Structures are given as C-alpha cells and as structure tokens.
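Work Package 4 report. The design task specified in the project plan requires that, given a folded chain encoded as structure tokens, an amino acid be chosen for each position. We show below one input record used in the internal validation round.
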C-alpha cells in the first residue's frame, strides 16, 4: 500500500513549485524544519531522492519530476472536490439535483424561480422525465429530490405530499360527449383516447381508473403535445388540470364530465431514506411543502 500522506505531497508540491523551503513553509503555515521533515519522510517512503540543490536553487530529480506531476493532478482534484463539497454543504449556495415528473412542467419552474430568489447563490439541475425513469433514479440515488405522483410503497423512501394533482379528461369543444351531462367509463370505449407513453404516471392512473390497459393508436410523451392534439380534434386526452388552466379559460378545450373524474391525486416530494439530504435540498423540501397547496 502507498503510504505517502497528503501533508507530504502538499509540502513536496510547494517546495518544487516555489523552489524554496522558506517560501513553502510560509505558504503552508508550518515551520521550515517541518517542511524539510515531510520531504524527508516522502523520500524514505518512495525510496529515491526527489529533490536536489543546484547552488541555492532546489530542483526536482527525474523521479521528483514525475511525482510533481502526479501531485499537481491529485491536489487539483482534491481542491475541486473540496470546493464542490463545501458548495453543496453551504445551505445558501448549494447545488440541487432535482428530478420531476413530466407533468410538473406546469408549476416546477415557478417554484424554482421563487426559491432561487430566496437563495440566489444556489444552483440546480432539473431533470424532467416520466415516472418509470424517476423510479430508476430513486433506486440509483441519482437525484437529491424527486417530485412525482403516487410514490411506490415498496421502496425505502421518505415522501411528503404538498399539492393536489387533479387528473381530468379533456376534449375539443365540439366533441359529442360534451353535450351529455354525464358520461360513464363505458362511453369512452368507442372513443379515440390520446394516451401518454408507457411508464407515465398519468397513463398508469388512467388505466387503473378505467380498469383496462390502454391500447390507443395515439401515444404522445408530452402533456403540451397532448393538449395540442386535443385542440386539433384528434381525440380525448387525460391531463393534470394544472396543465390546462389557460386552455380551459379560453375555451379552446373543454373538461369532460365522466364518472370517477376528476381523479384527485397528490404531488409528493420524495427522497431515498438511506440518503441524508444536503442543506439546500432540505431547504427546498421545506420550501415546497410550505408553499404547496393541499386543498
Ligand atoms: P407522468 O407522472 O408525468 O409520468 O405522467 C405524472 C403523475 O404521476 O401524475
């Protein structure tokens, strides 16, 4: 096993770079004999001379030059990782990795904008994807926090609901089913249903509610595109009510009255119970729960 210590490598790097024990000791805030001792121990550990003096100037030997290159790389990597860790741990300036269900598109940017205003030095990476992919991220701990509907119950998770997520059926304003005051799930059997892709939480919920697997001709992996498709008269779509507020207000699409709809679900903020949240992730979680709307 290699038994050089970081102190030895830092001392060696400083001596070679500054070409002086005095300068190195000042930089490292240790005495000159202490620097000398570190270099001696490193020399013993390696079993070869690392530096030589040419008059008053200190220069590395052939092996010293090789080790110096390695030292630069190691110290560089360590310093970078240290500053990244410090940044993550800083509750005001940390980095947040957040993964969210596609459907949260309608509100997640607003939430993050509000949060960023409160913590301007924080940074985040937002991953927008479907339920199946979110479950993989949870398994592999690939995000600090995840926002999804209906978290799985067979995984070691900490989950907290923070907002309602009403799922509705939408149709073109001229759709014949709109003329009926009430429709049943059976009325949907002869209709063209526009479905989300496999792996989508919306799709899984609709299949559960209507009690059968969807086998639609039209599958679209974006809520925005589904809304457009409904407006174009392609068929009936199912989306979170929050994603169609404007379209409903402007009457470019209509909400269908169907048994069991709207399906009221919740948005959850979720993380793996095995992982400790970083300060910024903890703050974001508290923020979203405080600013959520469970009514
Ligand atoms: P989805 O998830 O975007 O994968 O459909 C949304 C949900 O679970 O409601």
């Amino acid at each position: 096993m290699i038994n050089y210590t970081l102190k030895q490598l830092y001392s060696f790097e400083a001596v070679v770079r500054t070409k002086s024990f005095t300068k190195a000791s000042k930089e490292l805030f240790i005495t000159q004999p202490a620097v000398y001792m570190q270099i001696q121990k490193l020399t013993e550990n390696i079993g070869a001379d690392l530096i030589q003096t040419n008059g008053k100037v200190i220069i590395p030997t052939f092996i010293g030059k090789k080790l110096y290159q390695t030292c630069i790389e190691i110290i560089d990597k360590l310093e970078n990782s240290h500053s990244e860790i410090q940044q993550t741990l800083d509750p005001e300036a940390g980095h947040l990795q957040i993964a969210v269900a596609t459907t949260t598109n309608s509100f997640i940017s607003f939430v993050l904008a509000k949060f960023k205003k409160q913590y301007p030095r924080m940074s985040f990476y937002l991953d927008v994807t479907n339920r199946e992919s979110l479950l993989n991220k949870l398994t592999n701990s690939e995000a600090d926090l995840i926002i999804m509907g209906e978290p799985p119950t067979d995984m070691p998770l900490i989950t907290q609901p923070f907002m309602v997520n009403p799922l509705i059926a939408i149709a073109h304003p001229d759709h014949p089913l709109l003329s009926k005051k009430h429709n049943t799930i059976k009325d949907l059997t002869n209709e063209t249903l526009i479905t989300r892709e496999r792996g989508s939480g919306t799709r899984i919920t609709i299949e559960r509610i209507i009690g059968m697997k969807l086998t639609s001709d039209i599958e679209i992996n974006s809520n925005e595109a589904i809304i457009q498709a409904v407006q174009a008269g392609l068929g009936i779509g199912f989306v979170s009510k929050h994603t169609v507020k404007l379209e409903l207000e402007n009457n470019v699409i209509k909400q269908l009255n169907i048994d069991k709809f709207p399906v009221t679900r919740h948005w959850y903020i979720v993380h793996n119970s095995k992982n400790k949240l970083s300060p910024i992730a903890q703050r974001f979680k508290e923020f979203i729960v405080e600013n959520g709307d469970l009514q």
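Residues 101-103, 130-131, 148-150, 165, 196, 200-202 surround 2-phosphoglycolic acid (CB under 6 Å). Validation will be extended to a larger panel in the next phase.
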